[in-house]
Amino acid sequence: MNTQKTVKDYIRTIVDFPHEGILFRDVTTLFADPRGFRMAVDQMLHPYAGQRIDKVVGLEARGFILGGAVAHQLGCGFVPVRKKGKLPGAVISEEYTLEYGEAVVELHDDAITAGETVLLVDDLLATGGTAEAGIKLIERLGGQIIGCAFVIDLPDLGGRERIEALGMDVHALCA
Ligand code: 5GP
Q1: Range of the domain at 110
Q2: Which CATH number is 139's domain given?
Q3: 152 lines ligand 1 (CB under 6 A)
């Protein structure tokens, strides 16, 4: 019998968070475990080994934790996509639709140079709205997206189809 733990085994589900009816996938237990965290980071960058990646872009907030580690491992730069009003320099913005209302994400306008290759990183792909906004920001600066890597893909919410329809490679470690 194979008793080796997988990435999914380190993730717990919290019932009714942030509100009733939501099953929240909590990756803090994955990040807190040295084997789990290393496994997740290694598996996220595995498909891109040998490809030139100039920048890892991480989506706020858990994409910062994963993206920083992925960038360190690849030996490339890290760039944050943040919620509105958090970045100190000149920014470009993208608005996107949430379950209730709208949100805005921002990127420093000099964070990526046209032609640079980029790996987008976040913890979870649900509807794909957040990732799509990040992709639009990167492409507006002329970044060439090599792939979009997630720990979790929730397939029922259609995010993968939405992001693949933009011509992107989607890589997720578990559902
Ligand atoms: P989407 O825009 O694809 O609908 O939602 C994905 C974004 O919401 C990601 O940035 C992700 O961090 C966050 N998110 C939504 N649901 C969950 C969840 O159950 N667990 C975690 N860890 N993040 C979630």
Answers
A1: 51-174
A2: 3.40.50.2020
A3: no
